[in-house]
């Protein structure tokens, strides 16, 4: 069997780097044919030299840099603004790993789906914004979606080969993030650097902040609703600080199936790439004796109201999840740039969500209009 050809959107971020580590361990299984980044073009240059992709996409500044430092005879260098959709639809591509963050992943995600590719998304935003459209198009074009996000990968594995009619609910676990044992009154006393110091996972800045607010878990609820065709009432969240149980599925007879592993994103990445095979990951196993015990607790929505706000948006549906996502993106960026306080992220996002008049069954055009409206509203509130 020939190696599978892989494209990685966002190859210089945490998920992209770990995906390349997985591929490097399995050189007979995969070829890297496409890599994309935005501004980290020096790391992209090193990746090009190591993996020799036929196509890359990067910002305009990066295009100019790479054309001076990389042979264009072997690698075609495209501008990221129009190059993503072109790369994911290459006829030779088998798997598209969506490791880039933010709403910018939506269009290439849809392009990959319509090209009938296998898509391995670590990006939540595209499914939060337009999940119903993506799933509908995936059925139409026979595209396969195998999630990389650890919780969604866990549920995918728990449900594999089982009748959906037998499922009662799913249980998404959350580590609780950096603020689990911090009083809410102290939230605004913490620095950006302290907020970014996640106790379990090494992630990008935006998702780490979302983990601190539990907005990330709220987005995962919306994502799971779409991916696994569930109602909001079939999704429960449990705080599990050890982050060894990555999520669970409960069936009608009361049986619960859980997926457990060490806290390392290379495991769900490898599962998505090699599915349905299970190959040795080169990582240690869970040592239950050393671990000793597991802890579980109910999430405190008074302390972390972003979780409740995301659940509200998920229940309302339509364009509201897109509005929440856009407001959160802009507000988190403002926090990272020291423009607002940590608690302002929720306060601003809530105001934008409740100002929006949602469209129930939106077209893609209406989803983007809602996204742009929310960004303008959020920026105005930041300036006040």
Task: Provide a descriptive summary of the structure in words.
The chain is built from 16 helices and eleven strands. The protein is α/β, with parallel strands linked by helices and 384 residues long. It has three domains: 4-145, Rossmann fold; 150-262 and 284-302, no CATH class; 317-384, RNA polymerase sigma factor, region 2, helix turn helix motif (Rna Polymerase Sigma Factor, Chain: A). The strands form two sheets. A seven-stranded parallel sheet has the order 4-3-2-1-5-6-7, sandwiched between helices. The chain has a four-stranded mixed sheet with strand order 9-8-10-11, covered by helices on one side. Helix 6 (125-141) crosses helix 14 (320-336), helix 9 crosses helix 14 (320-336) and helix 15 (342-355) packs across helix 16.
Number-wise, the strands total 11
Radius of gyration: 20 Å
Shape: globular
The name of the CATH superfamily of the largest domain reads NAD(P)-binding Rossmann-like Domain
CATH architecture type of the largest domain: 3-Layer(aba) Sandwich
Strand order of the largest sheet: 4-3-2-1-5-6-7
Helix content: 40-55%
CATH fold-level name of the largest domain: Rossmann fold
Biggest β-sheet strands, sense, barrel: 7 strands, parallel
- The tally of structural domains comes to 3
What fraction of the residues are assigned to beta strands by DSSP?
5-15%
Which class best fits the helix and strand makeup? alpha/beta
Specify the CATH class of the largest domain: Alpha Beta
Mean pLDDT metric = 95
